[in-house]
């Protein structure tokens, strides 16, 4: 492993599994209190509810004893707002987990309190946890709710993600042919049938890509460009298949890259394309078909461990990789890489505030070295860390997403700004479907 690579020693793997189990409870644990059956018609549930006009799937009692209706999570303003209010406190995470009342077409159903019940959360944005009675219980289902099996894990564990097959001699700007196999190029269909790749992303499962929201609905993105697919297994955009000569002088070739259609693009609901601050600059792309993992196509891990979700990564060496693609330009045919050092948020705020850009805790900064930074990365591409489990297994995980920087990338003293992925793990977990 390269000198200075980010290594974070976690608890034992057993402890990691407990953490995963705890986090998985949020929107993943199915209440098996009622048998599988068809839901009753929504017209039977004309109770005053904040989801008026949205389909409901039965009556229920919330974890703290209030009457409610079982609805799709995104249709319950109170609980969905709670989810989006990061950081998500433990008591709120538990409440959301206990509020789940089923699944419908791979979407989470939640017990949403009736409109005339006692207010559940504050009306103004707050980072304080809501006050709940101690010892609240799981939602009680009064009607038969659609259920689905949860035996399929939404996101892979470190043993299945963040892996690169071969040992590498690190150094230089160009990557090897199988480095960073989670890298994706986002395909846009333009007028007159033209195709172009203008943003990057990271594969996090067989069906999902994480990218920047500005690559989906950004202000600078032409309105007649449509995200139509992603390219995986790419290295040199000018050749297919890609080949390189190894240290023994032998030709090493990868399988042809694959182009996968995008089924849907999901920008973060609180992303404002017109804001200079670019807060919540994160989006998900759901692929039309599940991809098969190979040595050249593999997912990167998310920072599911609480230690990683809250780490600042100040003065830590991280990697950025990509083809230097943005909404308006491309720098390289071959996938590039660079090492960046994390910059404290307060220092970064001081640099950007004269430009009327106000950064918050959901963002982070790295780099500031002339000619490097995310000039070698892509808009929406990954800022990458290297972690180690208690049993010595190393894996790469997604720390940040390339968001923005100075107009001239790689400007001395101006670090790039990244979306801090750890703050959005709950949103990702709640949004991805099977």
Automatic annotation (TrEMBL):
A single GO cellular-component term on record: extracellular region
Stated name of the protein: CLIP domain-containing serine protease
UniProt keyword annotation of Transit peptide present: no
Gene (UniProt): ea_1
CDD domains linked: Tryp_SPc
Family membership noted in the UniProt record: Belongs to the peptidase S1 family. CLIP subfamily.
Major location (coarse): secreted
Comment field on protein domains: The clip domain consists of 35-55 residues which are 'knitted' together usually by 3 conserved disulfide bonds forming a clip-like compact structure.
Domain Clip: start-end pairs: 59-112
Enzyme nomenclature, EC number: 3.4.21.-
């Amino acid at each position: 492993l390269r000198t200075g690579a980010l290594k974070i020693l976690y608890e034992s793997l057993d402890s990691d599994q407990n953490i995963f189990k705890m986090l998985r409870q949020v929107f993943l644990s199915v209440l098996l209190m009622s048998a599988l059956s068809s839901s009753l018609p929504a017209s039977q549930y004309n109770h005053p509810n904040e989801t008026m006009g949205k389909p409901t799937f039965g009556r229920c009692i919330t974890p703290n004893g209030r009457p409610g209706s079982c609805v799709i999570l995104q249709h319950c303003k109170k609980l969905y707002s709670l989810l989006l209010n990061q950081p998500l406190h433990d008591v709120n995470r538990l409440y959301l987990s206990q509020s789940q009342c089923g699944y419908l077409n791979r979407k989470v159903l939640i017990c949403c309190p009736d409109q005339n019940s006692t207010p559940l959360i504050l009306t103004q944005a707050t980072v304080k946890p809501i006050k709940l009675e101690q010892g609240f219980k799981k939602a009680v289902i009064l009607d038969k709710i659609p259920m689905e099996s949860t035996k399929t894990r939404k996101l892979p564990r470190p043993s299945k993600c963040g892996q690169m097959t071969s040992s590498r001699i690190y150094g230089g700007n160009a990557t090897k042919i199988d480095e960073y196999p989670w890298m994706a190029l986002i395909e846009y269909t333009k007028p007159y049938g033209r195709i172009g790749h203008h943003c990057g992303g990271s594969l996090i499962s067989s069906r999902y890509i994480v990218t920047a929201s500005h690559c989906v609905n950004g202000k600078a993105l032409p309105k007649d460009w449509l995200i139509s697919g992603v390219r995986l297994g790419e290295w040199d955009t000018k050749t297919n298949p890609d080949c390189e000569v190894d240290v023994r002088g032998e030709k090493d070739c990868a399988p042809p890259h694959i182009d996968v259609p995008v089924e849907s693009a999901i920008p973060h609901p609180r992303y404002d394309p017109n804001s200079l601050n670019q807060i919540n600059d994160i989006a998900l792309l759901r692929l039309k078909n599940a991809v098969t993992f190979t040595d050249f196509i593999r997912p990167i891990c998310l920072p599911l461990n609480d230690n990683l979700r809250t780490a600042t990564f100040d003065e830590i060496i991280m990697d950025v990789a990509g083809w230097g693609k943005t909404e308006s330009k491309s720098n390289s045919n071959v996938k590039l890489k660079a090492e960046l050092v994390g910059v404290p948020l307060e220092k970064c705020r001081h640099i950007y505030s004269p430009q009327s850009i106000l950064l918050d805790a959901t963002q982070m900064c790295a780099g500031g070295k002339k000619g490097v930074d995310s000039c070698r990365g892509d808009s929406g591409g990954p800022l990458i860390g290297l972690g180690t489990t208690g049993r010595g297994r190393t894996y790469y995980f997604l720390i940040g997403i390339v968001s923005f920087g100075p107009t001239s990338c790689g400007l001395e003293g101006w670090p790039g700004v990244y979306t801090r992925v750890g703050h959005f793990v709950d949103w990702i977990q709640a949004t991805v479907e099977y």
